[in-house]
Each structure stands twice: as C-alpha cells, then as structure tokens.
Amino acid sequence: MNDRTAFLRPTKHRSKQGGWTLLEISVTVLILSVLSAMAIPQFMMFRKDSRTFGDARDLADMVLLAKMRAASNYTRARIYFDTSAQSYHVEIWNKTLNGGAGGWQVDSVVILLSTGNTFAFGSLASPPSGTQTAIGLAPGCQNLDGSAGPISNTSCIVFNSRGIPVDSSGVPTAQDAFYITDGSSCYAGTVLATGLFQLWRTDVGAAKWVKR
Q1: Phi, psi angle pair for 30, to nearest 5°
Q2: Most CB within 10 Å of its CB: which of 65, 67, 111, 127?
Q3: What is the model's pTM?
C-alpha cells in the first residue's frame, strides 16, 4: 500500500459529528418553558414589591423632612397625602400668610406614587402591633383655619415644633399612619406619640406586620 492509498482510506478513529435529535430539542424546550413559568411570576412579584418598598422608603424620608422643617422653623409641618391623585408633599405653617392669619405653605416638590400603588390597605383589618388602635390613614388635612373640616381625599401627618405628631387641636396623637399597597403587599409608616417613626410590611392576605 502506497502513501496515497493510505491517505484516501477512511479511518475508524475519525470523529463523528452528530446533532440534536427532535426529542432532545423538545425536552429542552419543555424544561425551559416550565422554568420560565415558575420564574417569571416570582420575578414580577419581586419587582412590584421592590417598587412599593421604594415608595414607602421615600415617604419615610418625607416624614423625617417634615419633622426637621417643623423644628428648624419653630412651627408646625405636615405631610400632605392626596389620596385621589396618589401624591404627597410637605407643607409648613407660615403665620405671616393671609394678612397675618397664617396658612399652610408648600415646602417640597409634589411626588407621585409609582404606577399601580395607592394610599390604601386593602382588606387588612388590624394595624401593626403597638401603634394605632384601629387601622386607618391619618386624618384628613384641615383647611386654613380648621373650621371648615378636613379636605376631601386627603390625609395629613402633622408635627409640632418639637417633632411630636399632633391632631387638629394640637394634642399629641399616636393614631397617625400612612399605608401603601400594590394589591399584593402593603407597607405602613406609623408615628408614635413620642415622634418615633416605624416602617412595616405585610402581604395583603393577612395582617402579619414585620418591621422593616
């Protein structure tokens, strides 16, 4: 046998290239479909909860800002929640407005909640332990002189110059809170009569509040 014949003859050790069979491809696609069906809803739930937590954290910062504004200006300050527009901002009491009668003055930008989030607590029936006696948003915001009653579709947490939450009569209160829900989870921000702020979370199915 010459060298040319040996070169042309197929050898047994030459590698055989093979592809995926239809069955293998079908099984792979099925496995990927099952994993996607399990992972995507969990990811979307995590994403939605993260967005709601972000709103709650921003609101917590706004509570601290209102307390600081009240102390630094030796006046009252409040967080004004618009439960219709799903927005909020800080206001301070300016006694020089309205010819010396005083009035509330906007002291921050107006911030909107993330899409899908609302100031509400769904079907939850009880507040976080050691906070409010009954679950609910803080009372409605008072008009300039307070005589006309609360403004519709509003909620206000008011601080005096010592950083203590007070009601419309200026009496310290432990009933102030905000609630944000996305329909699956709910976050609450509560203010004790001492001025201590706490952030909580629970699923909407049952009030199992956990401090955040």
Answers
A1: -65, -45
A2: 67
A3: 0.77
